[in-house]
Specification:
Blueprint lengths: L3 E4 L8 H15 L8 H12 L6 H12 L5 H15 L6 H7 L6 E5 L3 H10 L8 E4 H4 L6 H11 L6 E5 L2 H10 L3 E5 L10 E2 L7 H11 L2
Parallel strand pairs: 1-2, 1-4, 2-3, 4-5, 5-6
Length: 221
């Protein structure tokens, strides 16, 4: 029986890959020192170095400054990213509707790798912070996915056993495999045109059965 639900953030609830180019375009336009670099090169290079969020931005910006010979400091660009990116952060279509239909009182947790202040700002920006009973972010916790300690720490806080948790994440090795190894029911949020099954989906507007069942419980007469 599912008694709690646990989510990854980036590319699961937060459409990072869709939001990030809008921020980068804005950053390129605001800094005159970047003007000699074409906007396409600026965005493409950042995304390549970023490796889907796995490389922290001080490293990304240091390499961009070197490659493009920019007269800017890492600190200036990093601070701009930290403070302004959340303005552009958006959730995937259908996420808000899904959360609005979850049963009241259902324990809901967030499990995210990243910097604490930044990830919390993203949660605030996409309007989901009030929905979470517990939030765990790797910098604050001192442990990162796929370490099972991170998963167990959140289930303890939610007051449930791992086998009572439904986990939703986008990274197979960091989310799905460790969650299943602990006995959780795990659903893979994937990118692209993939078949909808009980264990995977790509669109929050077309949900797999385990997520539909949670909503049905709330909407039953």
């Amino acid at each position: 029986m599912i008694r709690a639900i646990l989510f990854d953030l980036d590319e699961t609830l937060h459409d990072r890959s869709g939001s990030l180019p809008y921020f980068l375009r804005d950053q390129h336009q605001r800094f005159r020192e970047v003007a000699p670099v074409s906007i396409d090169d600026y965005i493409t290079t950042f995304l390549l170095l970023d490796q889907e969020g796995r490389v922290w931005k001080d490293v990304v910006y240091a390499e961009m400054i070197r490659r493009f010979e920019l007269s800017l400091s890492v600190e200036v660009l990093l601070q701009d990213y930290v403070t302004r990116y959340p303005i552009f952060a958006r959730s995937f279509p259908g996420v808000d509707t899904f959360f609005a239909q979850l049963p009241p009182g259902l324990p809901i947790g967030l499990l995210s790798n990243g910097r604490t202040t930044f990830q919390r700002a993203v949660c605030d920006a996409i309007g989901l912070s009030p929905s979470f009973t517990q939030i765990g972010i790797s910098e604050q916790e001192g442990v990162r996915k796929p370490d099972p300690i991170f998963f167990l720490r959140l289930t303890d806080r939610l007051g449930v056993r791992p086998d009572e948790v439904l986990y939703v994440g986008d990274h197979y090795d960091h989310d799905i495999l460790p969650a299943r190894a602990l006995g959780m029911q795990a659903i893979w949020k994937r990118t692209g045109d993939v078949p909808l099954t009980d264990t995977q989906f790509s669109d929050w507007c077309h949900l797999p059965s385990p997520l539909q069942d949670l909503i049905r419980k709330e909407n039953q007469p």
